[in-house]
Input
Amino acid sequence: MRSAEHPASMEPPKKIRSVVVDDEPLARTNISVMLKHDPQIEIVRECGSGMEALSEIRNAKPDLVFLDVQMPECDGFDVLELLGRDLPPAVVFVTAYDQYALRAFEAGALDYLLKPFDNDRFDRALGRAKERIAHGRDAPRRMERLALKNAGQVSFVKVSEIDWIGAADYYACLHVGTRTHLLRRSMAELDQELDQGVFCRIHRSTIVNLDRVRGLRLRLDGEYEVLLDNGTRLRLSRRYCKQLQSRLGVRGSDCT
Output
């Protein structure tokens, strides 16, 4: 007698590892309770400060972070900037202040929850995050070209031809030789997706192609600037100085 055939076992969906960051315990609890209603979510940690969040995100590498904006010592924007390439696939800002919305999206936030929010608004943000995470898990990590949409037309720029990228409100400004192109992407997204062997963040609003870097120059005010082979000079933030010097193989320089 033949045994009944069993359908092929299906791998359960991968859990979405999440971190909740807010300096108010009640706010952390409220978000965690809402997240626990979704069986696909696994709460890795609740963090009460930006510095705690930095350490936890770097170690746990979560898929999703709900991040408060205003926190003492290290706010939400500081957390994203200091994370650099360790930025999670999906970040949702949570705050009681609407004036930070534009800056949040420029920094790479997927959504912006304004307190107080209801269950429907939270569910929409969570749904967007799940879509972003699912897409990111399947997408290739290395881009070879970027699509530019303008006046109903689509053109392409080879990533290898970009000299540097600057932030311009909702857009990123791609500098390619003597031409510039506007791309509706955040600096944080590009910083994650571009080949880290070629591109390096040197400022919260600047990414540079390392192949174009001719040298570093110490200004009279004690700050460094990056010199490109086409004569362009770009400000180097102290936060990114050591990272850039390491990528360029520079040793013994003082970034402090």
About this structure: The first helix runs from residue 25 to 35. The chain is about 30% helix and 30% strand. The chain has a mean pLDDT of 85.
